[in-house]
Write a structure and sequence with these properties.
The complex is a heterodimer.
Chain A lengths: L2 H10 L18 H33 L3 H26 L8 H36 L4 H39 L1
Helix pairs in contact in A: 2-3, 3-4, 4-5
Chain B lengths: L7 H29 L3 H18 L9 H15 L25 H14 L4 H11 L4 H8 L3 H20 L1
Helix pairs in contact in B: 1-2, 1-3, 1-5, 2-3, 3-6, 5-7
Chain lengths: 180, 171
């Protein structure tokens, strides 16, 4: 196979270009749209966690929980706000125009690690906290029922959101292992 | 990344400039997409993804690298990290031959390109990027700037890729 001849053939070759997308403004299914959706979710999560960390104290007066439990919940929300903020920042920094191929892949892998840490830390801290909270409301069947229902709904919603977040990132990590 | 201007007049001007940019560089974008596509539908998807990402990223281009370098980066990064949408594919995939603009009687050119595509399709995504830019007669410095590999690494990897292609071509 003559590579120089191949180079000449390649350079003189013309391609039939496809039609452009009808609107260049909005695409909901591009890789960059997935990145923007992730970024928006992390921004929301950061804001919500930060608000919860601040509002746990007035809420504690209403639900009458012990001080140590309030402190633990505040610490939990502060940690989650930090991890969500970090994920948000890392997602924002994935700019295909400015990054080399190796840097783009590495940033995606790093984002995946942060997302995994956020998920593991979130579950590891939330599980005992929620268990203690439910035990605190054991004497009040109404509060207990609401707490359990909220936990189930929140758990299902959280699971669906996490699964969507990880779908794109897993594919990119697979590509990273082939590319690098 | 800088958001695209919402002022209608600015937006129109940017859109016109962008369309002109695409018009001048569409063959370059097609070549990158051709290298990474598995069939004609995939090629069309990749092409549109690259255009969409270029539109989103046009505000961040500051002119600190050559325009061709920026376009290569966008196109290659998009193609390598493209996430295939979860949809049903038709059982019969459409051949990539449809994309090539070759006269019907020029069978040797079509055969050469088909052979080249078959050989290059076995390479890893990074190696595809390297050989693509080499075929396009880009300098080692530009290839290094796009891929993030050192200049010497680019040279040695290209040497290995070329040897591999020659050996496979002879089999």
């Amino acid at each position: 196979m003559d590579l120089d001849q191949l180079k000449q053939t390649w350079n003189s070759q013309q391609f039939k270009t496809p039609d452009l997308p009808k609107a260049t403004g909005h695409r909901t299914d591009s890789a960059d749209a997935a990145r923007r959706r992730l970024s928006n979710r992390f921004r929301m999560a950061t804001i919500m966690a930060a608000l919860m960390a601040i509002n746990i104290w007035p809420l504690a007066d209403v639900i009458d929980t012990p001080l140590w439990l309030d402190t633990c919940m505040c610490v939990y929300f502060v940690i989650m706000a930090i991890l969500s903020g970090l994920s948000w920042r890392q997602t924002q920094r994935i700019d295909f125009g400015a990054l080399t191929l190796t840097d783009a892949i590495r940033k995606v892998v790093r984002l995946r690690r942060t997302m995994t840490l956020r998920l593991v830390a979130g579950i590891a801290m939330a599980a005992p906290l929620l268990s203690v909270l439910l035990l605190h409301f054991l004497h009040d069947s109404y509060s207990l029922a609401c707490g359990v229902a909220g936990g189930i709904v929140g758990g299902i919603a959280g699971f669906i959101i996490c699964q969507r977040n990880f779908t794109h990132i897993k594919e990119m990590q697979r590509i990273a292992s082939d590319t690098l | 990344m800088q958001d695209i201007s919402t002022d209608p007049a600015d937006h129109r001007e940017l859109q016109n400039h962008f369309m002109e940019l695409i018009g001048q560089n569409r063959q370059l974008i097609c070549k990158v997409c051709y290298m990474y596509a598995s069939d004609s539908d995939h090629f069309n998807d990749l092409y549109q993804e690259v255009i969409a990402n270029m539109w989103q990223g046009i505000g961040s281009f500051r002119g600190d690298s050559a325009l061709s370098t920026w376009i290569y980066r966008m196109a290659i990064n998009t193609c390598v990290t493209y996430y295939r949408r979860n949809r049903r594919h038709s059982k019969q995939t459409v051949s990539l031959d449809q994309i090539l603009d070759i006269p019907a009687d020029d069978t040797s050119r079509a055969d050469n390109l088909r052979q080249m595509y078959t050989l290059i399709s076995t390479l890893k995504p990074m190696d595809k990027a390297l050989i693509l830019m080499w075929l396009d007669e880009r300098s080692y410095d530009e290839i290094s700037e796009v891929t993030g590999l050192g200049r010497n690494t680019v040279a040695s990897r290209l040497r290995r890729i070329k040897l591999k292609l020659i050996e496979k071509g002879q089999q």
